[in-house]
Design a protein that fits this description.
Largest interface: A-B, 28 and 27 residues
Distance between the termini of chain B: 41 Å
Helix content of chain A: under 10%
Shape of chain A: globular
Distance between the termini of chain A: 32 Å
Structural class of chain A: mainly beta
Order of helices and strands of chain B: EEEEEEEEEEEE
Largest sheet of chain A: 7 strands, mixed
Helix content of chain B: under 10%
Radius of gyration of chain A: 13 Å
Strand content of chain B: over 45%
Number of strands of chain A: 11
Order of helices and strands of chain A: EEEEEEEEEEE
Oligomer: heterodimer
Number of helices of chain B: 0
Number of strands of chain B: 12
Largest sheet of chain B: 6 strands, mixed
Shape of chain B: globular
């Protein structure tokens, strides 16, 4: 069983909607990540939180707003998205501070923006 | 800059065949880490292996084996006696001194036919 969970599994939203993606990890990690993955492409890093603080923002548009309420939870708030934002959104976690640390991924949320 | 090349976009084999997935990387870091992930149709990236740049020992885990050759900057993955359940997209990835950033290859789609 995966120790990184994501909800919902699927989400359909209109361009004027506000929704949130949720991620929870049960591995005691202190770094969490959001990735976006388009079909037939590798994941692209969006945000990294380390010890509940945002440490990396890969120039993501402001219609994506991350939040890390505590060390095991990570949210991605969505507002005024565009159809090109339709993708698989993956959450991952790891121990922070070391490049060798393995990132463990959740099952993802498949987002469709109409 | 770091780069990972998976030259095989798609591979199709029949069950019980052996298959090798190629991965070639570029980095200026002297210490770096290489990873393989499996992504089945469900979407989750499943961690398979991590290898650091100082450890060129090959590894075998069941039907899976990995060949790391620093001299050719390659980290190839072989599945012996492939099974239908091995059908997935396989990603090779690299991390170096830029904490939190994984450089992914473009992925290889493996289809194993019964």
């Amino acid at each position: 069983d995966t120790e990184v969970t994501q909800t919902p599994k699927h989400l359909v939203m209109g361009m004027t909607n506000k929704k949130s993606l949720k991620c929870e990890q049960h591995m005691g990690h202190r770094a969490m990540y959001w990735y976006k993955q388009k079909a037939k492409k590798p994941p692209e890093l969006m945000f990294v939180y380390s010890y509940e603080k945002l440490s990396i923002n890969e120039s993501v548009p402001s219609r994506f707003s991350p939040e890390c309420p505590n060390s095991s939870l990570l949210n991605l708030h969505l507002h005024a998205l565009q159809p090109e934002d339709s993708a698989l959104y993956l959450c991952a976690s790891s121990q922070p501070g070391l490049a060798e640390e393995t990132q463990y991924f959740g099952p993802g949320t498949r987002l469709l923006v109409l | 800059a770091q780069k990972v090349t998976q030259a095989q976009t798609e591979i199709s084999v029949v069950e019980k065949e052996d298959v090798t997935l190629d991965c070639v990387y570029e980095t200026r870091d002297t210490t770096y880490y290489l990873f393989w992930y499996k992504q089945p149709p469900s979407g989750e990236l499943v961690f398979l292996i991590r290898r650091n740049s100082f450890d060129e020992q090959n590894e075998i885990s069941g039907r899976y084996s990995w060949n790391f050759q620093k001299s050719t900057s390659s980290f190839n993955f072989t599945i012996t006696a492939s099974q239908v359940v091995d059908s997935a997209v396989y990603f090779c990835a690299l991390s170096g001194t830029s904490y939190g950033k994984l450089t992914f290859g473009q992925g290889t789609i493996l289809t194993v036919h019964p």
